[in-house]
Specification:
The protein contains 15 helices and 10 strands. It has 340 residues and is an alpha/beta fold. The chain folds into 2 domains: 195 residues, Rossmann fold; 122 residues, Homeodomain-like (Arc Repressor Mutant, subunit A), CATH 1.10.10.60. The strands form 3 sheets. A 6-stranded mixed beta sheet has the order 2-1-5-6-10-9, with helices on both faces. It has a two-stranded antiparallel ribbon with strand order 3-4. The protein has a two-stranded parallel sheet with strand order 7-8. β1, α2 and β2 form a beta-alpha-beta unit. α2 runs parallel beside α7, α10 crosses α11 and α12 packs across α14. The relative contact order is 0.08.
Length: 340
């Protein structure tokens, strides 16, 4: 991605480990998402390289082989190691992987963030790296996964799980969500949104969203909640109520709530809170406006409420979050001091 040695030394090093029967689409996702992430000046933020254990080609699940440029030695210097999904093989059927794969991943766990896409979670689990931890995988493989890895706290309903230094995702599209989440976590919403726009994908789906979103077919005269969601997004600073949302959609509260959950996988209240948190994050990242104005603009009303919801979502207070992405002193009024 970058041939300048001086610049390369500053890049976040990502190693993608391709195993036998790797899912080709998932193998390419880190390059298409992390590999195109840039800062505001157009400088790359990640160097993404693909390896196999011995540097030799591996078969994909899609009918062709891939020849990587590296072997597992690049895991020694990686800051993030990604294991794409596989189809077939003893990791999925017997819960075991070759010793050299397990050793490489265990060694990487001492210094790198580990990420699995879809059934790549079975590889991490077979290496013993998910024991006692929450994890996600494709719902289709959940029953077998639980039998093989009972020590893992599997959540087969969510899109992805961020457990700090180990992150796991469900099926293919959820891998996109997880990789965008990594960019957002590392560099903020603006960078992640640029990556999403370049790849023509949705910029944000929360990891806690269900894999099992029902999208029933509608008749030509049967409306959904999309227009009301668009309407609400333009009014996040206003006191939106469930009754008001239902009235805008011209539905009863009960019908609106049911339709909303069918279409988004979330209750209206939970969806609103997440949209407000995302708006607050964008304002904290990209503006210097006082924290109490961020709270008001995102619809939280007070800095105390903003602090509570932001801490629940990402574990930090507003000013600490702003310092992470702005790196400059904050414009603070006396009333926003409590947001520290």
């Amino acid at each position: 991605m970058c041939n300048d040695p001086a610049m390369s030394s500053a890049l976040h090093e990502v190693a993608v480990l391709a195993l036998e029967h790797v899912v080709a689409l998932e193998l390419g996702l880190p390059h298409r998402l992390l590999g195109v992430a840039e800062d505001a000046a157009g400088r790359p933020l990640y160097r993404v390289r693909t390896a196999t254990i011995d540097g030799r080609p591996v078969r994909t699940s899609d009918g062709f082989r891939v020849q990587p440029e590296h072997d597992a030695s690049i895991l020694d210097r990686a800051q993030t190691v990604i294991v794409p999904g596989i189809e077939g093989g003893p990791a999925l059927t017997e819960g075991r992987i070759p010793d050299e794969v397990a050793d490489a991943l265990r060694a990487a766990a001492g210094h790198a963030r580990l990420v699995s896409l879809c059934t790549g979670a079975s590889v991490l689990a077979a290496a013993g790296l998910l024991d006692g931890r929450p994890a996600a995988t494709h719902w289709r493989d959940a029953e077998q996964f639980r039998r093989l890895f009972p020590a893992v706290r599997l959540d087969d309903e969510v899109l992805f799980v961020d457990d700090g230094d180990v992150l796991t995702s469900a099926g293919v599209a959820a891998g996109i969500d997880l990789l965008l989440h990594l960019v957002r976590r590392d560099h903020g919403s603006e960078v992640a949104t640029r990556v999403a726009r370049r790849n023509v994908v949705a910029p944000w789906r929360d990891g806690g969203q269900s894999q099992f979103i029902e999208r029933p077919l509608r008749g030509p005269d049967d409306s959904g909640t999309a227009d009301t969601r668009t309407w609400a997004l333009a009014r996040l600073d206003e006191p939106l109520t469930l009754a008001g949302l239902a009235a805008h959609a011209r539905m009863s509260v009960r019908t609106f709530t049911r339709r909303f959950r069918e279409e988004t996988g979330l209750s209206p209240q939970r969806w609103l809170t997440r949209q407000r948190v995302e708006l607050a994050r964008r304002l904290l990242e990209s503006t210097d406006i006082p924290v109490e104005r961020v709270a008001a603009g995102a619809g939280f009303g007070t800095t105390a409420s903003l602090r509570q919801h932001l801490h629940a979502a990402i574990g930090v207070a507003p000013l600490a979050y702003r310092r992470t992405f702005r790196g400059t002193p904050d414009v603070i009024s006396n009333s926003s001091a409590s947001a520290r």
